[in-house]
Amino acid sequence: MGTHNRRPDIRDLISLEDVMEEMDFGPNGGLIYCFEFLMQNLDWLDEELGEHEDDYLIFDMPGQIELYTHIPVLPSLINHLKLNLHFRLCAAYLLESPFLVDKTKYFAGVMSAMSAMIMMEIPHINIMSKMDLIKGQIKKRELKRYLDPDPLLLADEINSKTNPKFHSLNEAIVQLIDDFNMVSFLPLESGNEESVAAILSYVDDATQWAEDQEPKEPKDEELEGSEEVEI
Ligand SMILES: Nc1nc2c(ncn2[C@@H]2O[C@H](COP(=O)(O)OP(=O)(O)OP(=O)(O)O)[C@@H](O)[C@H]2O)c(=O)[nH]1
Question: What family does the Swiss-Prot or TrEMBL record give for this protein (predicted)?
């Protein structure tokens, strides 16, 4: 793995603040404009990235989910990196663990992950990040139902809280998640080296970084919280 101190930054090409101010766009529209501008200036990106052989690059992307689910800029960027620059790519979708507190937000996250997977068409891992923030607040057995989404979580609980006119929509969503059965999450605690290493080993496997890599299973104790309290 090579190391590079220089970090190309899209803000050297175009600034979201300038776009919002000059074009009178909101943050989402501005961001889409910036990405479209980047796509028209791929020479800039190629030059900034420079030459890479056996290097491991991380592209830190903005959190606005619309970029990955609604418009085709990401697939175009991915194609450029894959076909022209010959990168081996792996997408990592991060959902923050505090989302588990609200099941509707959690399932919206699951569906966005699914939508991004379908849109990007590259090896993909889903990560439940900031796991330390919910430690001790959820039982291990219960947590497993979130890491490997159990559609019944939605069916049982949401139907009891929503207006009956939404029940068939809830059922359709449950059915969709069940039919596709594509999404599961790897737990991540960014301050914990072993947890980061486990994620990296999945990425290495997805990109065939080292042919002899075996992905590590997250250890049971990493999933363990207090058995007393539930969220
Ligand atoms: N407790 C805890 N905090 C974390 C963890 N990872 C990141 N943070 C903190 O969360 C805050 C927001 O960081 P991120 O979630 O990485 O933000 P970001 O992804 O760059 O933001 P967007 O790209 O705009 O979505 C920072 O203060 C981080 O230090 C973690 O594993 N646990």
Answer: Belongs to the GPN-loop GTPase family.
The ranges of the chain annotated as CATH 3.40.50.300 are 89-231
Mutational pocket test of ligand 1: of 129, 131, 194, the residue with most ligand atoms within 8 Å of the beta carbon: 129
**Ligand 1 atom with the shortest distance to the CA of 62:** 23
What are 127's strand-pairing partners?
94, 186
Question: How many Cβ atoms from other residues are within 10 Å of residue 92's Cβ?
Answer: 19
ipTM over 0.90: yes
For ligand 1, atom 17: residue with the closest CA: 63
pTM of this structure: 0.85
Max Cα–Cα distance, the chain, nearest Å: 58
Ligand 1, atom 18, lies closest to the CA of: 63
Instruction: Provide the pairing of β-strand 91-96 with 124-129.
Output: parallel
| Pairing outcome for strands 91-96 and 185-187 | unpaired
**Which of 35, 59, 93, 190 has most ligand 1 atoms within 8 Å of its beta carbon, as the pocket-test mutant?**
190
**Please, are residues 19 and 30 in contact by the beta-carbon 8 Å criterion?**
yes
Spell out where the chain has E strands. Answer: 91-96, 124-129, 185-187
Q: How does pLDDT run across 192-229, given as a tens digit for each residue?
A: 999 999 999 999 999 887 765 566 666 655 555 433 33
| 89-231 CATH fold | Rossmann fold (3.40.50)
